[in-house]
Amino acid sequence: MRQTSLALLVSSLGVGHSFQAPLAALTQSPRPRIDRCTPQPPSTGRRLDTGISAETTPGEPSAKKEVLWSVPNVLSMSRIAMIPVVGLLWNLPEARCAVFVLAAITDWLDGFLARKMGSTSKFGAFLDPIADKLMVSFVLVLLAAERGIVIAVPAAIMICREIGIAGLREWMAENQARDTVAVGMAGKIKTAAQLASLSLLLAELPSGLPLDLMGSIETSGFALFYVSCVASVVSGWGYLRAAWPTLSGKS
């Protein structure tokens, strides 16, 4: 009805056909649609039904809070606390050996419990090797002073190796290549031989034992001690070779 009236008005005014076509198109064009949307409340970043943040992808693991006083960490701390106890009991061979063996057991136990309980932490990874090195280095120095050059020379080699590899690992960590010098099989053999040999060398064998047996135990202690020294050098060389591309700037 509206379009017919407008066309008659244009005809009565004498407007030409050339103007009627655009005008008809204009009058026939649909009116623009205006969407009226209900305003939404501002997002708070939370989903009330699930409790999952909108910025967090569902299923994404959250950051795990580390526990400082976990059982494995307490065992590592106790191993450090045993160091002065060994020194105070040094003139009592049975007692000093017992404390060192207990420390060696905690060295195995803290790692086992950390994996079993799923309580591994950065602090524990830092503390465990430090506790081992402090205890072993302390005993090596005192044992070298007691037994002389047969212990002093290998002890000096092993302590120098520990200091050098500790510095190498710290430098590699700063260059995001810490995994390159992770503990290998030779390092594990070195640690096991060290703990076993020092346990035998710290003990004073009862005088009632047969001389052959006493000699065999003493010889086994020295043999394991030198095996640990060789393994220390071999593992240290392996770490240095693995780190050499980063050290020389070729990686």
Succession of helices and strands: HHHHHHHH
**Major β-sheet profile:** none
Mean pLDDT across the residues is: 77
**Unreliable sequence segments:** 5-10, 12-20, 43-63
Structural class: mainly alpha
**What is the global morphology?**
globular
Distance between the termini: 84 Å
Number of helices: 8
Please describe what this structure looks like:
The structure is a single chain. With 251 residues, the chain is mainly α. It is 69% helix and 0% strand. The protein is built from 8 helices and no strands. The radius of gyration is 39 Å and the shape is globular.
Task: Please supply descriptive tags for the structure shown above.
single chain, 251 residues, mainly alpha, 8 helices, 69% helix, 0% strand
What topology does this entry show?
Layout: H1 2-12, H2 17-28, H3 71-88, H4 93-117, H5 122-147, H6 149-174, H7 185-202, H8 211-247
Structure described in brief:
The protein is 69% helix and 0% strand. It has 251 residues and is mainly alpha-helical.
